[in-house]
Specification:
This protein has 21 helices and five strands. By secondary structure, it is mostly helical. The longest helix is centred in the middle third of the chain and has 50 residues, at about 205-250. The protein is globular and about 80 Å long. One of its GO terms (cellular component) is plasma membrane. Its main location: membrane.
């Protein structure tokens, strides 16, 4: 018996729907119940499977991360007691640790658990995002990073103050802080959920404990501790996911992995339908995700800060290239792992049988299912997922600290802080925002699919931020009024789209067809009935624009910012192109600008002096 899942429930839908528009408006109709004999694989006590070896592996990862923070805080020759060391690592970091840190920061627990769940439920279309990374890395390395590196700024958003005005800088800083405060709780929730599943320990207990460790080494060790713990955690997460997919492939066989997924239509890369309301197509995965990843990498303080910690621009570019390769490899591994998991449960779906409640629990459940013959595997897996989360969290805390101190505190306080005082203040900031993130984790439990929830929330700020920086670098005539109007209008628009869309999904007015599941091969039988959920098409009660794919949010935000910014700049009097400081423009734009011999405009000079 094959079932098609709908948001953790079961329904008997026509198989042809799996490639139809995912934003399906459904209406439940009163129908007779169809008696179905469903088989349930009843697991043994799962918490007992997380044994001494697993706890030892997991504990070793946490202890090692803590020791790194202690080393850079108390033992290393160069202590983290000044701004340059704490935020920029003294600008002497090597390519290897920086590139590993970039990869580890980007590949969060959402990727390690969310991507396999995405493949399991929806198929391989999402893996097409890899294509956009090639273009993102090129754009980042040769357009955005050179501008930031040549300016030698600490906070990325100082650029907005230099190019436009102080108000735009504050807007950019606040958008970044908002983005990280929305994103980090999701990142923390993922490993806590996995840990609860394999140990039975409530995530409300696990979350504060692990976060305290992350806050501890981030507070003490600064950027160097974050980068080197990221490097260690990077190898931990790779080893964890590699162990799971290797064992799974050996047990099932590569040919069976492919054939079982192909039979259910999970292997597909050719959805070229231009309809923007379809959840995943080649167009929104490549074009839409390009804007999202570009915003997440090229103008994100968390990523740019590491590139600026390099001793030369050439090394910063090399780190970006390695980042692209690393993301491609890890995303591919996570996607393939999802295929392995489905091949294992292809005739006994634990979601249909209610053994697990959410699709995001499928990978931890799979690990526990095969761990009886591989002691220590759950510990390795959970360590990998936690490593991904901790690296993202520590990076976020460190970068938010830099932005808050450099952009919001330092310019608004007349008192001149000493380097030691600055270091103490930044450590206090880490403690405060770390605590806020822990509290917000409990809100995340109400969300649905992690991948979509994470990108929908991040898209609210990612698009407007990318639009502000792009407006400044590509439009030398754009003024501060245009930047403010463009940024604010973009935030309002994307927030409205995301909010209405999430609300419609929560109410069941928008649903996404999932791939078929089977329960024919389960071990023990339980009789119960499942209702037939007919898919009907009532009057259009959800606006077309609300059904847009979440992958377009960043693109919409970017384009809106630039269009409104240019229009308002024109109406209020555009800046003199020749007077714009060429250092603030993208390299490809500078060659078309002939600056006045007198140098940068007076406004550029004032902003530059104000920031520094």
């Amino acid at each position: 018996m094959w079932l098609r899942q709908n948001d953790f429930g079961s329904s008997m839908q026509n198989k042809a729907l799996h490639r139809g528009p995912p934003a399906v408006q459904t209406q439940r109709t009163t129908t007779p119940f169809l008696p179905i004999r469903v088989y349930v694989r009843t697991p043994s006590n799962m918490s007992a499977l997380f044994g001494i070896v697993d706890y030892a592996v997991f504990g070793a990862m946490l202890v090692l991360s803590t020791l790194v923070g202690i080393y850079f805080a108390f033992i290393a020759k160069k202590k983290q007691n000044n701004t340059s060391q704490y935020l920029m690592g003294g600008k002497e970091m090597g390519v290897f640790p920086i590139s590993m840190s970039l990869i580890a920061s980007y590949i969060s627990g959402i990727s390690l658990i969310g991507l396999p769940a995405e493949m399991y439920v929806y198929g391989t279309m999402y893996s097409m995002v890899i294509v956009s990374e090639v273009f993102v890395s090129f754009t980042m390395a040769y357009i955005y990073i050179p501008v930031f590196y040549n300016l030698q700024i600490t906070s990325t958003y100082e650029y907005l103050g230099m190019r436009f005005c102080r108000k735009v800088q504050i807007l950019g800083s606040c958008l970044f802080i908002l983005k990280m405060l929305l994103y980090i709780p999701i990142v923390i929730y993922v490993p806590a959920l996995a840990f609860e599943q394999v140990t039975g320990i409530n995530l409300h207990i696990v979350t504060p404990v692990v976060c305290v460790i992350c806050i501890f080494y981030t507070t003490l060790g600064g950027l160097k501790a974050v980068v080197w713990t990221d490097t260690i955690q990077m190898f931990t997460m790779v080893f964890g996911i590699l162990a799971v997919l290797t064992i799974g492939t050996v047990n099932i066989g590569f040919s069976n992995v492919i054939s079982r997924n192909a039979e259910t239509g999970r292997i597909e890369f050719d959805v070229f339908d231009p309809d923007p309301t379809i959840r995943h197509t080649v167009w929104n995965l490549v074009i839409g995700n390009y804007f999202y990843w570009l915003a997440s990498c090229s103008v994100n303080q968390a990523m740019v800060q590491r590139c600026l910690a390099m001793p030369s621009l050439a090394k910063a570019r090399l780190a970006v290239i390695i980042l692209a390769v690393g993301i491609t490899v890890l995303v591919s591994m996570c996607c393939y792992t999802g295929l392995v998991v489905f091949a294992h449960f292809y005739n006994c779906d634990p979601i249909s049988t209610k053994v697990i409640k959410k699709a995001d629990q499928i990978l931890p459940y799979y690990v526990m299912a095969i761990s009886k013959t591989f002691p220590g595997l759950p510990g390795v897996f959970v360590s990998g997922v936690f490593s991904a989360a901790l690296s993202t969290m520590s990076t976020g805390l460190n970068s938010m600290t830099g932005v808050i101190f450099q952009d919001l505190i330092k310019p608004n306080v007349k008192y001149h802080f000493t380097e030691l005082q600055s270091s103490i203040i930044m450590k206090l900031i880490v403690l405060i925002i770390g605590t806020i993130c822990v509290v917000l984790v409990f809100v995340v439990e109400k969300l649905g699919a992690l991948i979509q929830a994470g990108k929908s929330m991040a898209g609210i700020t990612s698009g407007p931020l990318l639009g502000l920086f792009s407006l400044g670098m590509f439009c030398p005539w754009a003024n501060s009024q245009g930047a403010l109007a463009g940024g604010l209008s973009s935030v309002v628009l994307v927030a409205a789209l995301s909010g209405f869309s999430q609300s419609a999904q929560a109410q069941g007015r928008i649903k996404y067809p999932m791939k078929p599941m089977s329960t024919e091969g389960c071990d023990s039988a339980i009789n119960f009935t499942l209702p037939i959920e007919h898919i009907v098409y009532p009057e259009q009660n959800v606006l077309w624009v609300i059904k847009l794919s979440y992958l377009y949010y960043a693109a919409i935000g970017t384009i809106t910012t630039m269009i409104v910014g240019n229009v308002v700049s024109y109406l209020t009097g555009p800046d003199d192109v020749a007077s714009t400081n060429p250092d603030l423009l993208a390299p490809c734009i500078r060659k078309f600008i002939k600056p006045k011999k007198s140098g940068p405009s007076e406004s550029n000079k004032v902003n530059h002096e104000h920031v520094f």
